[in-house]
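Board notes, transcribed. Complex of a protein with iron/sulfur cluster.
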Amino acid sequence: MAKLIEKPKMTLAEKSYVWETGKGLGLTMTRFFRNVFSAREHDSEGHKLLRRGDIDTVNYPEEKRVYPERFRGVHRLTHRLDGSPRCVACLCCSTACPAQCIHIEAAEYAEGDPRRGYERYPKVFVIDELRCIFCGFCVEACPCDAIRMDSGLHMPPSTQRSHFMFDKATLMAIPGADGTFQTANPRHEPGESGHPGIDREHH
Ligand code: SF4
Ligand code: SF4
């Protein structure tokens, strides 16, 4: 059965809209002036101070928002202490990637390198940052902490499609938000006490 809803009763002032329009403009102007003046208040590190009721805006790009620690920024490939990539070209990240935007070509280390036959390295490693949906699955899938999204950087704007294709050299040149190329959670390397050994005899 249809329910009859009574029309709300309005006063004469409300029916005229003049008073209500004035109230709306008053609220808008209060917000406007509060934000104009609060935009000049910064803390000692230059971050805009926000007060309860302020509209949360920044004058980008002069002012930059501080991203939270877990912000997923553009990718980086972490380094070992000798500067080589931690990546062992296992393809776990590209397999997990729902956007299929990671392209890896694996290669063997040179003859005589102790890592030859034990692990591989990425000869080619390209991420299409424009196709990426920043889900973080690649970081979760990586067994070596070799790919991270803790750079603290968002993708810089560009009018050229090619600028969004990050190759291995680009990915390795991006430091973490802490300014280093390492990772806080590396796997154990051959020779280290926590490493199980590179063959079944644990040598
Ligand atoms: S963040 Fe997600 S979409 Fe982007 S490369 Fe990693 S897995 Fe692919
Ligand atoms: S970044 Fe990690 S998951 Fe991706 S290929 Fe390298 S080692 Fe494997």
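Residues 96-99, 101-102, 127, 132-138 surround iron/sulfur cluster (ligand 1) (CB under 6 Å). Residues 39-67 form one domain.
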